[in-house]
Protein backbone atom coordinates (compact mmCIF):
# COMPACT_ATOMS: atom_id res chain seq x y z
CA UNK A 1 0.00 0.00 0.00
CA UNK A 2 2.96 2.28 -0.45
CA UNK A 3 2.63 5.36 -2.65
CA UNK A 4 6.12 5.49 -4.02
CA UNK A 5 9.37 3.60 -4.30
CA UNK A 6 11.32 2.97 -1.15
CA UNK A 7 14.97 3.83 -0.97
CA UNK A 8 17.50 1.15 -0.23
CA UNK A 9 18.21 0.12 3.37
CA UNK A 10 20.57 2.27 5.29
CA UNK A 11 21.78 1.72 8.82
CA UNK A 12 22.06 4.38 11.45
CA UNK A 13 25.81 4.39 11.13
CA UNK A 14 28.52 3.50 13.59
CA UNK A 15 28.64 5.24 16.91
CA UNK A 16 31.47 7.64 17.42
CA UNK A 17 33.82 7.84 20.33
CA UNK A 18 32.98 9.61 23.55
CA UNK A 19 34.85 12.58 24.94
CA UNK A 20 38.47 13.24 24.05
CA UNK A 21 39.58 15.31 27.00
CA UNK A 22 42.49 14.24 29.08
CA UNK A 23 41.93 12.10 32.15
CA UNK A 24 41.28 14.12 35.26
CA UNK A 25 41.70 13.18 38.90
CA UNK A 26 38.77 11.36 40.42
CA UNK A 27 36.80 13.42 42.95
CA UNK A 28 38.25 13.12 46.43
CA UNK A 29 36.71 10.45 48.61
CA UNK A 30 35.08 8.52 45.76
CA UNK A 31 36.22 4.93 45.43
CA UNK A 32 36.47 3.45 41.97
CA UNK A 33 33.89 0.73 41.41
CA UNK A 34 31.54 -0.36 38.66
CA UNK A 35 27.83 -0.27 39.41
CA UNK A 36 25.25 -2.74 38.07
CA UNK A 37 23.69 -1.89 34.97
CA UNK A 38 -15.84 4.10 24.22
CA UNK A 39 -14.81 7.77 23.71
CA UNK A 40 -11.96 8.97 21.71
CA UNK A 41 -8.99 10.60 23.33
CA UNK A 42 -6.89 13.36 21.94
CA UNK A 43 -3.52 14.41 23.31
CA UNK A 44 -3.52 17.74 25.05
CA UNK A 45 -7.28 18.42 25.06
CA UNK A 46 -8.86 18.92 28.44
CA UNK A 47 -7.36 20.18 31.66
CA UNK A 48 -4.80 17.40 32.06
CA UNK A 49 -3.27 18.35 28.73
CA UNK A 50 -2.56 21.94 29.76
CA UNK A 51 0.87 21.47 31.31
CA UNK A 52 2.44 23.82 28.81
CA UNK A 53 0.34 26.85 29.75
CA UNK A 54 3.32 29.21 30.00
CA UNK A 55 4.68 30.18 26.57
CA UNK A 56 8.20 28.92 26.07
CA UNK A 57 10.96 31.49 25.83
CA UNK A 58 13.53 31.29 23.07
CA UNK A 59 16.27 30.77 25.67
CA UNK A 60 14.41 27.77 27.10
CA UNK A 61 13.43 26.13 23.82
CA UNK A 62 16.68 24.22 23.42
CA UNK A 63 17.52 25.69 20.03
CA UNK A 64 21.18 25.88 19.21
CA UNK A 65 22.30 29.00 17.40
CA UNK A 66 24.28 26.80 15.03
CA UNK A 67 21.20 24.89 13.88
CA UNK A 68 21.57 22.13 16.46
CA UNK A 69 18.78 20.61 18.53
CA UNK A 70 20.33 21.86 21.75
CA UNK A 71 21.21 19.36 24.46
CA UNK A 72 24.59 20.84 25.38
CA UNK A 73 23.78 20.56 29.10
CA UNK A 74 22.55 17.19 30.36
CA UNK A 75 21.30 16.76 33.92
CA UNK A 76 20.27 13.72 35.92
CA UNK A 77 22.07 10.47 36.65
CA UNK A 78 20.45 8.26 34.00
CA UNK A 79 20.69 10.93 31.31
CA UNK A 80 24.39 11.54 31.98
CA UNK A 81 25.15 7.82 32.09
CA UNK A 82 23.46 7.27 28.72
CA UNK A 83 25.35 10.23 27.27
CA UNK A 84 28.64 8.58 28.23
CA UNK A 85 27.54 5.07 27.26
CA UNK A 86 26.27 6.07 23.82
CA UNK A 87 29.41 7.95 22.87
CA UNK A 88 27.68 9.54 19.89
CA UNK A 89 28.85 13.07 20.76
CA UNK A 90 31.73 14.57 22.67
CA UNK A 91 31.30 15.13 26.39
CA UNK A 92 33.40 18.05 27.60
CA UNK A 93 32.99 17.70 31.34
CA UNK A 94 31.06 15.91 34.08
CA UNK A 95 30.21 17.98 37.16
CA UNK A 96 29.21 16.45 40.49
CA UNK A 97 27.81 17.99 43.67
CA UNK A 98 30.22 17.40 46.55
CA UNK A 99 27.69 16.09 49.08
CA UNK A 100 26.37 13.03 47.24
CA UNK A 101 25.90 9.75 49.06
CA UNK A 102 27.59 6.71 47.46
CA UNK A 103 25.56 4.97 44.76
CA UNK A 104 26.44 2.37 42.10
CA UNK A 105 25.25 4.62 39.25
CA UNK A 106 27.59 7.39 40.42
CA UNK A 107 30.52 4.96 40.38
CA UNK A 108 29.51 3.92 36.87
CA UNK A 109 29.36 7.54 35.67
CA UNK A 110 32.81 8.22 37.10
CA UNK A 111 34.23 5.06 35.51
CA UNK A 112 32.71 5.87 32.13
CA UNK A 113 34.05 9.43 32.27
CA UNK A 114 37.51 8.17 33.21
CA UNK A 115 37.52 5.65 30.37
CA UNK A 116 36.49 8.33 27.88
CA UNK A 117 39.05 10.80 29.29
CA UNK A 118 36.31 13.26 30.21
CA UNK A 119 37.20 15.74 32.94
CA UNK A 120 35.33 15.31 36.25
CA UNK A 121 34.77 18.31 38.47
CA UNK A 122 33.32 18.32 41.98
CA UNK A 123 31.70 21.48 43.36
CA UNK A 124 30.05 22.53 46.57
CA UNK A 125 26.29 22.12 46.54
CA UNK A 126 25.67 25.85 46.25
CA UNK A 127 28.03 26.27 43.29
CA UNK A 128 26.64 23.16 41.65
CA UNK A 129 23.05 24.35 41.99
CA UNK A 130 24.00 27.67 40.40
CA UNK A 131 24.87 25.73 37.22
CA UNK A 132 21.70 23.63 37.02
CA UNK A 133 18.63 24.41 34.92
CA UNK A 134 16.30 21.64 36.14
CA UNK A 135 14.48 21.23 39.42
CA UNK A 136 16.01 17.85 40.29
CA UNK A 137 19.42 17.32 38.75
CA UNK A 138 20.27 14.52 41.23
CA UNK A 139 23.67 16.11 41.80
CA UNK A 140 25.03 15.23 38.34
CA UNK A 141 25.33 17.20 35.12
CA UNK A 142 27.44 17.05 31.99
CA UNK A 143 28.46 19.60 29.38
CA UNK A 144 28.50 18.14 25.88
CA UNK A 145 28.57 18.85 22.18
CA UNK A 146 25.05 19.86 21.05
CA UNK A 147 22.86 17.26 19.35
CA UNK A 148 22.90 17.52 15.58
CA UNK A 149 19.65 16.96 13.65
CA UNK A 150 19.34 14.15 11.13
CA UNK A 151 18.17 15.10 7.62
CA UNK A 152 14.54 14.16 7.04
CA UNK A 153 15.55 12.13 3.97
CA UNK A 154 17.58 9.79 6.18
CA UNK A 155 14.60 9.14 8.43
CA UNK A 156 12.57 8.11 5.39
CA UNK A 157 14.80 5.12 4.64
CA UNK A 158 14.22 1.63 6.07
CA UNK A 159 15.75 0.97 9.48
CA UNK A 160 19.05 -0.85 9.89
CA UNK A 161 17.21 -4.20 10.08
CA UNK A 162 15.25 -3.44 6.91
CA UNK A 163 11.96 -2.68 8.65
CA UNK A 164 9.90 0.21 7.25
CA UNK A 165 10.17 3.65 8.86
CA UNK A 166 8.18 4.25 12.03
CA UNK A 167 8.28 8.00 12.61
CA UNK A 168 6.79 10.37 15.15
CA UNK A 169 5.89 13.93 14.11
CA UNK A 170 5.31 16.41 16.92
CA UNK A 171 3.09 19.39 16.13
CA UNK A 172 4.35 22.26 18.32
CA UNK A 173 4.82 20.42 21.60
CA UNK A 174 5.91 23.20 23.97
CA UNK A 175 6.04 21.55 27.39
CA UNK A 176 9.59 20.25 28.06
CA UNK A 177 8.41 17.54 30.46
CA UNK A 178 5.93 16.21 27.93
CA UNK A 179 8.50 16.28 25.14
CA UNK A 180 11.04 14.39 27.24
CA UNK A 181 8.50 11.75 28.21
CA UNK A 182 7.43 11.35 24.56
CA UNK A 183 11.03 10.88 23.44
CA UNK A 184 11.62 8.24 26.12
CA UNK A 185 8.49 6.39 25.01
CA UNK A 186 9.47 6.68 21.34
CA UNK A 187 12.89 5.14 21.92
CA UNK A 188 11.46 2.28 23.99
CA UNK A 189 8.72 1.57 21.41
CA UNK A 190 11.13 1.30 18.50
CA UNK A 191 10.35 4.59 16.76
CA UNK A 192 13.03 5.07 14.09
CA UNK A 193 12.93 8.86 13.93
CA UNK A 194 11.28 11.96 15.41
CA UNK A 195 10.43 15.11 13.44
CA UNK A 196 10.26 18.46 15.25
CA UNK A 197 9.26 21.86 13.84
CA UNK A 198 12.05 24.42 13.93
CA UNK A 199 9.89 27.15 15.49
CA UNK A 200 7.24 27.42 18.22
CA UNK A 201 8.22 24.13 19.83
CA UNK A 202 10.47 22.88 22.60
CA UNK A 203 13.74 21.28 21.54
CA UNK A 204 16.31 19.57 23.76
CA UNK A 205 16.59 21.60 26.95
CA UNK A 206 18.10 20.16 30.16
CA UNK A 207 14.55 19.45 31.36
CA UNK A 208 13.76 17.54 28.16
CA UNK A 209 17.01 15.56 28.33
CA UNK A 210 16.39 14.61 31.97
CA UNK A 211 12.78 13.56 31.36
CA UNK A 212 13.92 11.52 28.35
CA UNK A 213 16.37 9.63 30.63
CA UNK A 214 18.97 9.22 27.90
CA UNK A 215 16.65 8.59 24.95
CA UNK A 216 17.99 11.67 23.14
CA UNK A 217 21.32 9.87 22.74
CA UNK A 218 19.72 7.04 20.75
CA UNK A 219 16.93 8.71 18.74
CA UNK A 220 17.42 10.29 15.34
CA UNK A 221 15.64 13.66 15.24
CA UNK A 222 15.00 15.96 12.31
CA UNK A 223 14.25 19.68 12.39
CA UNK A 224 11.93 20.97 9.67
CA UNK A 225 10.70 24.44 8.74
CA UNK A 226 7.08 23.25 8.85
CA UNK A 227 5.29 19.96 9.45
CA UNK A 228 2.80 20.31 6.54
CA UNK A 229 5.60 20.48 3.95
CA UNK A 230 7.46 17.65 5.68
CA UNK A 231 4.30 15.55 5.54
CA UNK A 232 4.04 16.19 1.81
CA UNK A 233 7.62 14.96 1.44
CA UNK A 234 6.82 11.81 3.41
CA UNK A 235 3.74 11.17 1.30
CA UNK A 236 5.81 11.43 -1.88
CA UNK A 237 8.06 8.68 -0.54
CA UNK A 238 5.20 6.32 0.31
CA UNK A 239 5.04 7.00 4.06
CA UNK A 240 1.55 7.18 5.56
CA UNK A 241 0.83 10.00 8.01
CA UNK A 242 -1.75 9.25 10.73
CA UNK A 243 -2.83 11.97 13.12
CA UNK A 244 -4.05 11.30 16.65
CA UNK A 245 -7.19 13.25 17.51
CA UNK A 246 -10.53 12.82 19.31
CA UNK A 247 -12.35 13.23 16.02
CA UNK A 248 -10.56 10.35 14.38
CA UNK A 249 -12.73 8.03 12.32
CA UNK A 250 -10.89 4.87 13.33
CA UNK A 251 -9.33 3.37 16.45
CA UNK A 252 -5.57 3.36 16.83
CA UNK A 253 -5.98 -0.30 17.80
CA UNK A 254 -7.23 -1.18 14.30
CA UNK A 255 -4.85 0.84 12.16
CA UNK A 256 -4.66 -0.91 8.79
CA UNK A 257 -1.37 0.78 7.81
CA UNK A 258 0.46 0.05 11.09
CA UNK A 259 2.87 -2.33 9.36
CA UNK A 260 3.52 0.05 6.43
CA UNK A 261 6.01 2.93 6.37
CA UNK A 262 4.26 5.13 8.94
CA UNK A 263 4.43 8.48 10.68
CA UNK A 264 2.25 9.16 13.73
CA UNK A 265 1.39 12.85 14.22
CA UNK A 266 0.74 14.20 17.71
CA UNK A 267 -0.73 17.62 18.44
CA UNK A 268 0.26 20.23 20.97
CA UNK A 269 -0.98 20.46 24.55
CA UNK A 270 -4.35 22.17 24.58
CA UNK A 271 -5.25 22.75 20.92
CA UNK A 272 -4.22 19.34 19.58
CA UNK A 273 -3.40 19.06 15.88
CA UNK A 274 -3.25 22.36 14.02
CA UNK A 275 -5.76 22.76 11.21
CA UNK A 276 -3.31 22.49 8.31
CA UNK A 277 -1.46 19.52 9.83
CA UNK A 278 -4.75 17.69 10.40
CA UNK A 279 -5.81 18.34 6.81
CA UNK A 280 -2.52 16.91 5.53
CA UNK A 281 -2.90 13.63 7.44
CA UNK A 282 -3.80 10.57 5.35
CA UNK A 283 -5.94 9.35 8.23
CA UNK A 284 -6.89 10.48 11.73
CA UNK A 285 -7.16 7.90 14.51
CA UNK A 286 -8.41 8.08 18.08
CA UNK A 287 -7.79 6.27 21.36
CA UNK A 288 -10.99 4.71 22.76
CA UNK A 289 -11.62 5.67 26.40
CA UNK A 290 -13.91 4.03 28.94
CA UNK A 291 -13.74 6.45 31.87
CA UNK A 292 -15.36 9.76 32.69
CA UNK A 293 -12.54 12.00 31.43
CA UNK A 294 -12.47 12.73 27.73
CA UNK A 295 -8.76 13.22 27.11
CA UNK A 296 -5.23 12.03 27.79
CA UNK A 297 -2.11 14.03 28.40
CA UNK A 298 -0.11 14.16 25.17
CA UNK A 299 2.73 12.04 26.57
CA UNK A 300 0.27 9.38 27.75
CA UNK A 301 -1.45 9.40 24.35
CA UNK A 302 1.95 9.01 22.69
CA UNK A 303 2.68 5.96 24.84
CA UNK A 304 -0.62 4.27 23.97
CA UNK A 305 -0.28 4.96 20.25
CA UNK A 306 3.40 4.12 19.86
CA UNK A 307 3.21 0.83 21.71
CA UNK A 308 0.02 -0.19 19.92
CA UNK A 309 1.68 0.40 16.56
CA UNK A 310 4.73 -1.50 17.81
CA UNK A 311 2.45 -4.40 18.82
CA UNK A 312 0.86 -4.54 15.39
CA UNK A 313 4.23 -4.35 13.63
CA UNK A 314 5.58 -7.22 15.73
CA UNK A 315 2.91 -9.70 14.60
Could you explain how this protein is built, in words?
The protein is an alpha/beta fold and 315 residues long. The chain folds into two domains: 70-146, 60s Ribosomal Protein L30, Chain: A (2-Layer Sandwich), CATH 3.30.1330; 152-313, SPOUT methyltransferase, trefoil knot domain (Alpha/beta knot). Helix content is 27%, strand content 18%. The protein contains nine helices and twelve strands. The strands form two sheets. Strands 1, 6, 7, 8, 9, 10, 11 and 12 form an eight-stranded mixed β-sheet that branches. It has a four-stranded mixed β-sheet with strand order 2-5-3-4. Helix 1 runs parallel beside helix 2 and helix 5 (176-189) packs parallel to helix 6 (206-212). The protein starts with 38 loop residues before the first strand and ends with a helix. The model is unreliable at 1-25 and 28-61 (pLDDT under 50).
Amino acid sequence: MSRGPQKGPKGRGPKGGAGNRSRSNRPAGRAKGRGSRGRAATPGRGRDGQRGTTPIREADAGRGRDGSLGGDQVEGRHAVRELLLAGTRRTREVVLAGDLDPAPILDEIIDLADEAKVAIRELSRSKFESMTRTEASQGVLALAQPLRPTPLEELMRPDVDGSPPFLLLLDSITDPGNLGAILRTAECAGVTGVVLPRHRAAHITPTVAKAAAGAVEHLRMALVAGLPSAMATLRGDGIWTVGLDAGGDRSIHDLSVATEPLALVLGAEGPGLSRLVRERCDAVASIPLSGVLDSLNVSAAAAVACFDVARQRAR
